[in-house]
Amino acid sequence: MQILAKLLVVTTMFFSTCLVRPEAVSGTSEVVGVSDGDTITVIDHAKNIRLKIRLATIDAPESNQAFGARSKQSLSELVYKKNVTLKSFGNDKYGRVIAEVFVDGKNINVEQIKRGLAWHYKHHEKQQTAAERLIYSKAQDFAKENRIGLWAESDPVPPWDFRKEKAEKTPKPTKYLFIR
Q1: For this structure, is 54 an active site residue?
Q2: Catalytic-residue membership of 133
């Protein structure tokens, strides 16, 4: 019984560190990694924690998709080794913190869209106020109208469609029955 109680305490402590509450990331953090055009890693020195941050309400091209590398490079130029302020919306299903990222007051999520290196991800726009949706939509309209970044292509493929196509092409594991 004592072993079970200890196991429960250890398990609870472990899982409580895996999920970060939104208020745990308020304030300033330093960007120490850029995974792609919409995901960064930060260190909150005040709390001594390292967090994966998924930029809220944008979706950047996948790494192996057209403009994927440029999107990552752009985000790196904007945030890498810089102090950022985060406005958190909670966690996604992978445990990443969903947040708007700001450098010196500039909204980096919107900047990625303006540069034509991310889409306004309307699937998550319910997290936004009407004013925020308008800002993001106008940023995307600006990039489209000026044929900036991925909008220079005649028919750019959104990352959600790219992921879906890739998943459909990936062979599903088959079940084998071995008879001896």
Answers
A1: yes
A2: no
| Residue of 21, 54, 115, 145 marked catalytic | 54
- 97-133 pLDDT, tens digit per residue, is 999 999 999 999 999 999 999 999 988 788 899 999 9
pLDDT digits (tens, 9 = 90+) for 129-179: 999 999 999 999 999 999 999 999 999 999 998 988 877 776 666 666 667
Name the amino acid, one letter, at 180: R
Highest CATH level, class, for 20-165: mainly beta
Please give the full DSSP string across 93-140, using - where no structure is assigned: TTSPEEEEEEETTEEHHHHHHHTTSSEE-GGGGGGS-HHHHHHHHHHH
Domain ranges of the chain: 20-165
Of the candidates 21, 62, 70, 132, the residue annotated as catalytic is 62
Write the CA distances from 59 to 17, 24, 48, 175, integer angstroms: 27, 24, 28, 35
Is 62 among the residues known to form the active site?
yes
